[in-house]
């Protein structure tokens, strides 16, 4: 079946694939995860706020982004970020934003909505007595959240947050629609240059499935280790 | 900021094709829904089968089901699209491969198959979880009454499991609609790709994307409400909150 195929193309291009493509994918994944969890936690706090306008605004944003496809979100931010940038610094012309920063902002703002829902569930899983106790001890809102509620919420939700990160790692491949050289983008450039679509895409699928399989097994192990026995 | 808003653009003629920009978006919505619905049929059928297999006492069935789910969950959807579209025809025998490549509407057929298989792994996960959430006594009582294992699944386990997993299945259905946008990479002219082409021809970026966003939200709201009706209709009185369960999110 594979008689006509030339798997040497992988040997010839693996440096480019991993040092250019995979490096971009991993960098974007890690930074979007960190940014997404921070923004997502803030969004979750807003959603749970007793001040109605704040919770409605945060809830509206999260539900809006969650109901449209990621590809459309990528297009939205790709065109929107230069205008937002101009608005922030007060420039007349839309500012030029590099491919990486544009993607990073997109993925932070997109994944934040999913991390927000996870953190909201995590915060709600902490019993009310904890909050009452810390208020009784004289802590204010930020101290209660920072020292009592969020550490417990993070601990409960770490496996789910990491599972969402594996999803994010796969989602990053969609920057392909902006012709950016992530792992899939790099592979598809080589594939089209050398006319080796079959070999390259099979290789990409293999790499992704090995990585994601290893990552989700790690998450499962971690889940067993950090589970709190109640 | 100097962006020229022009909301009348939707009634201008689309340079490609016959109608206006609006009619092109509506046609895109048609492709999105057709792809999602057909793929959903595949996903539901395969997913139920694989999910059920993973709960049977037969070890080889469980292993096969697990391998299936791992395979489709660990490869990004975009890469799966490319595999079905570019790689599959090459691996088939020559004549069959040529026939597949010359097939009219091949992006549509490919994306239906791809989305169907991709989502079936997620449906299988839900079905397995639904069956797992039933008390063990249900299966035991079924077999104690003299039902065979397939009969137990057909008449006792699955009807209850499907009622339990209706809310997560609703989110999976919403996901399949959203995921169909990935098919624009293999040339399916669905809603997002129509919005993108409108942006390229008219330079009215934000009008085009706003329209697509609003259409997606309307579809979302309709699906969520229809599923709520369905949940009420199939709810067993006195069981599993009697149909008052909220959908998704």
Tell me about this structure.
The complex is a heterodimer of chains A (230) and B (249). Helix content of chain A is 80%, strand content 0%. Chain A has 230 residues and is mainly alpha-helical. Chain A has a domain at 22-175: Orthogonal Bundle (MetI-like fold). In chain A, 39% of the residues are buried. The model of chain A has no long low-confidence stretch (mean pLDDT 90). Chain B starts with 20 loop residues before the first helix and ends in a 15-residue tail after the last helix. The longest helix of chain B is centred in the first third of the chain and has 33 residues, at 21-53. Chain B has ten helices and no strands. Chain B has one domain: MetI-like (MetI-like fold, Orthogonal Bundle), CATH 1.10.3720.10. Chain B has 249 residues and is mostly helical. Chain B is flat, with a radius of gyration of 22 Å. In chain B, helix 1 packs across helix 8 (166-179). Chains A and B meet through helix 2, helix 3 and helix 8 of A and helix 2, helix 3, helix 8, helix 9 and helix 10 of B.
Poorly predicted sequence stretches spanning 5 or more consecutive residues of chain B:
242-249
Oligomer: heterodimer
Cα shape of chain A:
flat
Described by the principal axes of the CA atoms, the overall outline of chain B is flat
Distance between the termini of chain B: 36 Å
Largest interface, C-beta closer than 8 angstroms, per-chain residues? A-B, 40 and 40 residues
Rounded mean pLDDT of chain A is 90
CATH homology-level superfamily of the domain at 22-175 in chain A: MetI-like
Strand content of chain B: under 5%
CATH first level of chain B: Mainly Alpha
**Number of helical segments with 4 or more residues of chain B:** 10
H-E string of chain B: HHHHHHHHHH
